[in-house]
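Q: Structure for this?
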Amino acid sequence: MREFQGRVIAPGTVTAPALVSHGGLNTLASFQKALQFGDKKATCGDQNNPDLYNKPMKGKALCLPQTIGSTTGGMVLYCACAMNRQPACMLFSKPIDSLAAAGSILASVWLDGINMPVIDSLGEEFLNFVKDGMTITVGADGRVIVE
Amino acid sequence: MYLTDEQQAIANGEKGETMARVMKTLIMYGETFGADKMVPVTSQYNHLVTSFGLKMMGPVFDLMQQLIDAGAVSQQEFSVDPRPMDPKVPANLLQKFIFRNFMYSKQADYENQLKQLGLMNDDAFTCACYFDQVGNIPKKGDYLSWAESSAVVYANSVLGARCNRNSGIMDIMGSIAGFVPHFGLLTDAGRKATWIVKVTCKEKPEAQLLGSAIGMKVMEEVPFVTGMSRFLGTQLNEENKAYLKDFGAATASNGAVGLYHIENLTPEAKELGASLVAPGAKVYVIDDAELERVKQSYPVVWKDPNAKPKLCFVGCPHLSLEQLVDWTKNLKQGLAESGRKKVRIPTVFTTAPGVKQEFEKTHYARQLRETGVILSCICPLMYMNNPLAGKMPVITCSNKLRTYSTARFYSEDEILHILTKGGKG
């Protein structure tokens, strides 16, 4: 078990299995197919992301460095939340990028009843340590326990 | 973050619940990135990235309607990215059915929302809103609330305006409030270069390839590019603006660049020179071999890598008037050399509606039609952004289109060769 401390971007607490992307998450490429074609598991459609491709993202503790790609990324994430296909939480090793920040803030402000804690700045060691399937517990103060 | 009395009052609900949420969104956004205050949006027009009535974007359209119903509309008129459909662009029956009845079934409804929110006019659909023929040209020092990545990097770098790489929806939030949080590329410190890129190529590098190499290396940081005066001179003429448009789009899509400086050429580099470079800046040297290495690194994601191309897109970002004329001249010459009259594969050139209208007034429009090229105002990315198009072998000289789709990248010279001399006679 290891504990990491990050910064709270969107508050909340959750426990969920880890899903790890070592490269940047292309939000549009990852979510578009699932949102467009009614995939309730939000299976990742980004062929350029070998860590996530074809894996369900809904309900997972998504661990990643940051998001990349089109500036539609924030609103794609907002749509995933509105359609209840969002990850259980998003845990960034780096400081959050402006697109992911926008998506999580928009969901937090404009959607009622959405609980998707977002924590950033967890450090490179976090991504080195966490593996798919490990149990992640996110605390309200930005503490992340991996076991 | 410091808020004025007016901003605090809006956040407290003095102008209603919806405006309070708009302000809260911007406050949270600013606080995430250490903004010290809000600054007024000073550009005449805004530009939105969301141009498509994609069915999956239903929650966005609901949010837009919530804003309209509450009277929380944009304080600025705005342009918006290109439309996703054009019946003139080749597509099979299944693609056309899916585009119209499934993927983009909300297009008409969404365009109606855009009009209510402040769309400049029916022709304001282009990613290159800063063209003279479109007229959304911010002034140096203007604060913007834009999101389209290629437009943001152009406005910051070539026009000297100030804009962060915002997400869709966040762009309209700033425009509605009339304020944006002051951080990142809006600040002097955020506009310092943390990379020096030394270009030592023997010949003028292709804009889309050079931009790709730099984007992939520096990612979201700011590069100060030297060694380009030999190729570009020191004046921002139309040819150079088109070059920088394509260069910037590649830096923004292959990386996440929001601002670059070109020594002796872009406005802040001319004004401030090497003082723009931050202490401890990293160095990246680009020679011809490095560009070739980058080009060879692009994966070919076609199902059959040896498939014959079925479609070619040129114009992502949209072509300028001068680029359209140049491509027409080059195609005409290339076809004459090969003794042919038509391009070898179906080809679509894309440009802004205003540019298309100007181009149609020239004799080059007839020449281009005679080559068989289709001139459209579509967004190639939106065309490619579906599983059916993903199976098509499409070629392009756009590194942005390559990055976000299954299209295969070729240099402009290679594309010209394929179009005029490739294939069987």
